[in-house]
Structure formats: C-alpha cells, structure tokens
C-alpha cells in the first residue's frame, strides 16, 4: 500500500477512535450525574435501598470518575499532536471556538434557564431552587465561577490548561526535564499542594498526556513505529487481496500488543482504585487509577477494528452541556410519579432501572435536539457544539 494511502487510513482510524473514546467517556459522565437513590427513597431505607445505593455509587464514583481525567488526557493528546510553535496560534484559535465559546454560551443558558424556571411554579418543583436573582454580578458569577452549571468546572480547567500549553510544552519537550516535572506534580498531589487554577491533578493528567504524545507517539497512536518515523516501504502488493491480507496481518499483530497492554493497564487501574477505597489511602492511588483506566481503554480501542462512529456518537460537547438538564428532569419527574403510582417496595428497582437507562435516554433526547438545531438553527448549533459536525 502506498505510504500516503496508509497514512490516510491510520489518520481516519485515529479520528474514529477519538470519537469512540469521547462517546464512551460521555456515557460515564452521564452516570456520574444520574445518581437517584435519595430522590426515589424519599426517606425510606432498607436492604434493597442499600443494594441500589451500592450499585449506583460504584458506577457513578468508582467507574464514572475516570471520565474527566480521560477527557484531559485526550484533549492534551490532540493539542500536542504534531505540535510546533508555528501551529500554536491556529490551535489556540480552534479551541477558542470549540471550547471557550461553548463554555460561555452554556453557562449563560443555564443561568437564564434557572432565572426563568425558578419563577414558574410548575417547573420550580422539579428544579428545586429558590428564585435566582437577575443582574450583571450574577451573570459574571455564572461565567467566571460556573455557579449555575457546576458540571462545567472541567471545561474551565481545560481552558486554563490550553492557555498554559506553551509552558507545558517547554517543560515536557525534553524527556529528562519532563519526567522530573511529572514526578514533582505527583509529589505535590501526595502532599495535597493544590494549585486550584488549574487543579494539580488536572495539570498532571494533561502534562502526562503531553509527555507521552511528544516522546512516545507510537504508543499513544498505535502506529507501530516511532514518533516522526515514516511507514516502512514494502514491496507492492501483487493484487488487491494480497494487499488486504498484508494490512490485516499488520493490524492484527499490532492489535494484539495493544489489547495486551490495555488489559494489563486496566488490571493495574483496578488495583489502584481498589487500594484507594481505604479511607487512609494516599490520594496518589486514586489519581493513578484514574490515569491508568482511560489510558488502558484507549489501548483496548486501538487494538480492535472499530466500526465507524455513528452521528449520534459525535455530539460530545452538546451532550456534555445538555445531559444534566435531561437527567435532572427525568430523575425528578420519574421519582415524583413513581412515589404516587407505585408500591414502595418497587421503588428501589425502579430507581436502578431508570439510572441504568439514563445514558441511553440522554443520548436519544440530546441527538433529537441536535438534529433540530443543526437543521433549523445552524448558528445556535455551532455555538453550543463548538462547531463540531455530527458527520465527523
């Protein structure tokens, strides 16, 4: 296969893998915000409620909390991929429109939504807030402190990290210096020295991914060759079947290595997160587990031939912004209805069923809204999605 053809195939596979990774992490984020045991229990408790709480806590906290570190890792890989100083301005410009603009628009939407909803009696019951004051100071509070959309703390941190990316690049571009800096960040985490803006753990995840992307690109992208090394030239295939067979052989051999690395990494992540369950455990166990788990997931995804991501899987920014509204209304509305219509003994099972189905429901509702906005209000769609396309 000609080198340029193989490069295009690898690039397409890489972009498709990014879409899959973003989608899977988005599902975990939805579960983080879907915890509903207290809503459905309404003061009731017992063995069934304890089991429901354990399951939801496991998925929302132990598993779900790997999502945001995964987003930091992936965002850093994309920023530092093929990075040069000449590309800095264009990378900043793209991320201004794809990250900073949606952050501002979504925070304003949440704020004005709360201002309106808390003044409508039939909606206030579901929202569960006192009337929100309207004024310029509150608008600034919404934008600078994500006061009415706490889920956007991640984007706030990411904006800071993107701004600091040139400094991170200077620290990470040399192997020895970069390694020492990562060790220093790990020590700061161990001693609870939080920088807040950005958080020390967020800085560690982002910097680690930068280091790996700059020095171990073949491990990150699964190309099977060292960073900057072109594909090895092979004798031209005699026919199409031979070309496909050779490609399959290469992908399978490389894929097995990636699957093995992913499996080992996931086992290591499970061990770290298990150690972190001890109340006296060092916080580094938690951070290590949340670093290893998404890294291992990326290896596993790169070890198999993924089908093309569907359009409903490509709504990552829009889904991140709207899912909390969907989850909140479904959880609160269903809990109120179930308490009135169903026997109390059924409520734990109903709560768990709703919890497990919420990612699918959120994706479906979000995609429906995305199609409408994309078709009829394209400017609004671009603002809310950061200019992302549903078609890839």
UniProtKB/TrEMBL annotation:
Annotated region Disordered: the residues are 221-241
Compartments reported by the entry: Cell membrane
Keywords for this entry?
Acyltransferase, Cell membrane, Membrane, Transferase, Transmembrane, Transmembrane helix
Family classification? Belongs to the acyltransferase 3 family.
Q: What is the lineage of its organism?
A: Bacteria, Bacillati, Bacillota, Clostridia, Lachnospirales
**Molecular function in Gene Ontology:** O-acetyltransferase activity
Q: Which InterPro entries match?
A: Acyl_transf_3_dom (IPR002656)
Q: How does it sit in the membrane?
A: Multi-pass membrane protein
Question: Gene Ontology terms, cellular component aspect?
Answer: plasma membrane
Q: Where are the membrane-spanning stretches?
A: 21-46, 66-84, 96-114, 151-172, 259-277, 283-306, 318-338, 350-373
What region holds the Acyltransferase domain?
Answer: 23-367
Does Transcription appear among the keywords? no
Write one Pfam family the protein is assigned to. Acyl_transf_3
Q: Tell me what organism the protein belongs to.
A: Candidatus Copromonas faecavium
Name it.
Acyltransferase
The reply on keyword rRNA-binding is no
| Biological process annotations from GO | enterobacterial common antigen biosynthetic process
């Amino acid at each position: 296969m000609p080198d340029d053809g193989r490069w295009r195939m690898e690039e397409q596979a890489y972009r498709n893998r990014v879409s899959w990774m973003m989608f899977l992490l988005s599902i975990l984020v939805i579960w983080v915000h879907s915890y509903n045991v207290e809503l459905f229990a309404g003061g009731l408790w017992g063995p069934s409620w304890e089991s429901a709480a354990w399951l939801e806590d496991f998925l929302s906290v132990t598993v779900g909390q790997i999502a945001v570190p995964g987003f930091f890792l992936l965002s850093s890989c994309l920023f530092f991929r093929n990075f040069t100083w000449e590309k800095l301005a264009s990378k900043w410009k793209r991320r201004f429109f794809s990250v900073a603009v949606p952050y501002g628009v979504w925070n304003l939407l949440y704020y004005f939504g709360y201002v309106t909803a808390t003044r409508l009696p039939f909606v206030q019951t579901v929202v569960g807030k006192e009337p929100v004051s309207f004024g310029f100071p509150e608008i600034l509070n919404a934008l600078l402190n994500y006061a009415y959309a706490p889920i956007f703390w991640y984007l706030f941190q990411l904006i800071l990290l993107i701004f600091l990316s040139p400094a991170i690049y200077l620290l990470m571009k040399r192997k020895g210096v970069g390694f020492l800096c990562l060790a220093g960040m790990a020590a700061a985490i161990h001693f609870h020295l939080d920088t807040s803006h950005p958080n020390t753990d967020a800085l560690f995840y982002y910097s680690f991914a930068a280091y790996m992307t700059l020095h171990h690109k073949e491990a990150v992208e699964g190309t099977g060759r060292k960073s900057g090394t072109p594909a090895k030239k092979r004798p031209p295939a005699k026919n199409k079947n031979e070309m496909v067979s050779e490609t399959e052989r290469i992908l399978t051999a490389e894929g097995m290595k990636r699957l093995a690395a992913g499996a080992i990494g996931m086992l290591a992540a499970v061990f770290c997160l298990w150690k972190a369950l001890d109340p006296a455990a060092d916080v580094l166990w938690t951070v290590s587990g949340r670093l290893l788990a998404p890294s291992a997931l990326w290896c596993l995804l790169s070890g198999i031939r993924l089908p093309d991501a569907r359009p409903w899987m490509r709504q990552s920014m829009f889904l991140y912004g709207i899912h909390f509204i969907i989850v909140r209304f479904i959880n609160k509305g269903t809990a109120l209805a179930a308490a009135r219509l169903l026997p109390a003994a059924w409520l734990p099972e109903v709560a768990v069923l709703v919890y497990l189905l919420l990612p699918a429901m959120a994706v479906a509702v979000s995609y429906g809204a995305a199609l409408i906005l994309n078709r009829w209000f394209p400017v609004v769609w671009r603002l809310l999605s950061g200019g992302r396309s549903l078609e890839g």
